[in-house]
Recover the amino acids of this structure.
């Protein structure tokens, strides 16, 4: 299968797609119910992924302050995933980072809450 | 069929380049940010594939095609991608056609002595065919998007 749309051709022109089609195909095929993928669909998915990367990068960069920033950090990306509707599907894989101490405190509070609830239910039944 | 975890990742160098091209010059991208975006891109492919596959199944087809991918973008609320994708599709089809014509021409040249043929005439006819096909594709898209 030719990765025809990758890199620069002999004339040095910009190619349609930079991401390797073979890798995109592997990811697509890992999806359970997919039988086969037409070449055009493969090219379009690769192109869409590039557009997505650009969109996520610029949205994350602009997130929060309107000032020009010098760096793009993980927290910019995570905040965008958590807060922007279009990127909600990423919320689980890009959690915001919190201090371990804070997390342990949250866990403890949650357990106490659950204990109270189950005690209440017992009392009622 | 087991894939190793790294096979589902996209190459760092390409991802970094795409990000850099999207942001202003001189902006530093942390390794974690790049890794996050790369993972997000892989998840995007999975999500788009699953969505496109639903459209293919609705159309009782086993092969994902271009219009399934376009419908998936609509469904995922990435309408902003649709126009550039359609343009890319047209460019890709032209390119494929060009390659096909080039190899057919080579074959012809091998078989007979080189004549001074008029290439423009045949290209005109082919453009009409392409327009018809594009129209058909658009009609198919509309049919499939209807639930």
């Amino acid at each position: 299968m030719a990765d025809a749309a990758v890199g620069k051709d002999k004339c040095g022109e910009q190619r349609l797609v930079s991401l390797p089609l073979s890798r995109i195909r592997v990811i697509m095929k890992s999806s359970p119910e997919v039988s086969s993928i037409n070449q055009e669909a493969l090219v379009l998915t690769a192109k869409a992924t590039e557009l997505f990367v650009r969109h996520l990068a610029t949205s994350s960069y602009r997130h929060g302050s309107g000032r020009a920033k010098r760096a793009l950090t993980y927290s910019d990306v995570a905040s965008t995933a958590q807060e922007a509707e279009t990127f909600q599907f990423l919320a689980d894989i890009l959690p915001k980072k919190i201090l371990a101490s804070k997390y342990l405190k949250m866990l403890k509070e949650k357990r106490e809450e659950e204990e109270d609830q189950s005690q209440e239910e017992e009392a009622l039944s | 069929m087991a894939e190793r975890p790294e096979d589902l990742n996209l190459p760092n160098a390409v991802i970094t380049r795409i990000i850099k091209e999207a942001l202003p010059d001189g902006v530093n991208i942390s390794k974690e940010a790049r890794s996050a975006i790369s993972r997000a891109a892989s998840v995007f492919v999975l999500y788009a594939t699953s969505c496109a596959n639903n459209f293919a199944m609705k159309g009782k087809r086993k092969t994902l095609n271009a219009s399934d991918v376009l419908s998936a973008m609509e469904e995922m609320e990435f309408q902003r991608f649709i126009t550039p994708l359609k343009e890319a599709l047209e460019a890709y089809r032209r390119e494929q056609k060009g390659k096909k014509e080039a190899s057919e021409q080579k074959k012809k040249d091998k078989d007979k002595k080189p004549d001074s043929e008029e290439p423009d005439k045949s290209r005109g006819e082919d453009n009409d065919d392409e327009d018809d096909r594009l129209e058909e594709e658009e009609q198919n898209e509309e049919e499939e998007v209807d639930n």
Q: What stands out?
A: The mean pLDDT of chain B is 81. Chain B touches chain A through 62 residues (CB under 8 Å). Chain B is about 70% helix and 5% strand. Strands of chain B lie at 28-29, 63-64.
